[in-house]
TrEMBL record:
Gene source species: Oceanisphaera avium
Protein name: Molybdopterin-synthase adenylyltransferase MoeB
GO cellular component: cytosol
Membrane-spanning parts: none
Matching InterPro entries: ThiF/MoeB/HesA (IPR045886), ThiF_NAD_FAD-bd (IPR000594), Ubiquitin-activating_enz (IPR035985)
Similarity field: Belongs to the HesA/MoeB/ThiF family.
Domain THIF-type NAD/FAD binding fold: 15-249
Family matches, as SUPFAM superfamilies: Activating enzymes of the ubiquitin-like proteins
Keyword terms of this UniProt record: Nucleotidyltransferase, Transferase
Gene Ontology MF, one: thiosulfate-cyanide sulfurtransferase activity
Lineage: Bacteria, Pseudomonadati, Pseudomonadota, Gammaproteobacteria, Aeromonadales
Length: 252
C-alpha cells in the first residue's frame, strides 16, 4: 500500500495535467492528497465545489447536509439527477464522488450542523467551505472556524449576484461576524428570491479553486476580501473586510 507521502501509478495518470503545471507538480499533488476539507451545504454552491475537489484529488472530503433532493434543486444542483429525487444529499453526493474518483475518501454527514457539533467536525479538517444559505449557520460556522484557527471559504449567491469571502483566523482582517453583525432575521435566499444556476456554479467553482490554491500554495488566496459578482454586467468588485476590535469572534 502506498502512503500519503507518495503518488501511485494510477494517480500519476489521473493527475497528469496537474503534474505538468510548474506551480503544482508532484509536491503540490501530494499536498492535495494529504488535505482534508469540510463542505457544509451540498446545494448549488456545494455541488460544483465538491466535484472539482474530488476530481483534483483532495484526500478527504467531509460532506455535510441533512436535506433531501427535490426536483426544484435540479435547476442548479448539478451533482444530482432525476434518479436522485427524495434521496439524501450527503449520501448521494458521497456515492457520486466515489464513482468520480475512488482515490479520495468521502465521508457523508447526514445531519444538521449546529453549535453542538460544528466544533468536532471543524477540528477534523484543514479547511472549511461554507456552501450554506442560512445566516445563523454561517455565523456559527464562522465562530467555530475562528475558535479552531481553521481557514474558511464562504460562498453565496442570489438572483444574478454572487459573493466569495476568504477568511483566515491567523491573519489581520475581519470575519463574517464583523461584516454582517448578528442579524439572524429573515433574509433573501434562493427559495424566496430565485437564482440563475450558473451564478451559484461560478461561486462554487471559485471556492474549489481557492481551496486548491490553498493546499498547493499557488498564487495568493484573497484573504479578508469580499468579492462581489454581478452576472448581468459580468463585473467584479472587491472590498477589504476590516476587523471590528469589539467583535466577540475575532476581535482583540
Amino acid at each position: 500500500m502506498v502512503s500519503d507521502s507518495q503518488l501511485t501509478d494510477d494517480e500519476f495518470m489521473r493527475y497528469s495535467r496537474h503534474l505538468l503545471l510548474e506551480e503544482v507538480g508532484e509536491q503540490g499533488q501530494l499536498k492535495l492528497k494529504q488535505g482534508s476539507v469540510l463542505i457544509v451545504g451540498l446545494g448549488g454552491l456545494g455541488s460544483p465545489a465538491v466535484q472539482y475537489l474530488a476530481a483534483a484529488g483532495v484526500g478527504t472530503l467531509w460532506l455535510a447536509d441533512f436535506d433531501h433532493i427535490e426536483v426544484s434543486n435540479l435547476q442548479r444542483q448539478t451533482l444530482y439527477d432525476m434518479k436522485s429525487l427524495k434521496h439524501s444529499k450527503a449520501e448521494t453526493a458521497r456515492i457520486k464522488l466515489q464513482n468520480l474518483n475512488p482515490e479520495v475518501e468521502v465521508i457523508a454527514i447526514n445531519q444538521k450542523m449546529d453549535e453542538q457539533n460544528l466544533a468536532a467536525f471543524v477540528a477534523e479538517v484543514d479547511l472549511v467551505l461554507d456552501c450554506t444559505d442560512n445566516i445563523l449557520i454561517r455565523q456559527q460556522l464562522n465562530a467555530a472556524c475562528y475558535q479552531a484557527g481553521k481557514p474558511l471559504l464562504v460562498g453565496a449567491a442570489i438572483r444574478f449576484e454572487g459573493q466569495l469571502l476568504a477568511l483566515d483566523p491567523k491573519q489581520d482582517h475581519g470575519c463574517y461576524r464583523c461584516l454582517y453583525g448578528t442579524d439572524i432575521g429573515e433574509r433573501l435566499n434562493c427559495s424566496n428570491s430565485g437564482v440563475i444556476g450558473p451564478v451559484v456554479g461560478t461561486i462554487g467553482m471559485l471556492q474549489a479553486l481557492e481551496a486548491i490554491k490553498f493546499f498547493t500554495q499557488t498564487g495568493s488566496v484573497p484573504w479578508g476580501e469580499l468579492k462581489l459578482f454581478d452576472a448581468k454586467n459580468h463585473s467584479w468588485h472587491g472590498l477589504r473586510v476590516p476587523k471590528d476590535p469589539a467583535c466577540p469572534v475575532c476581535g482583540s
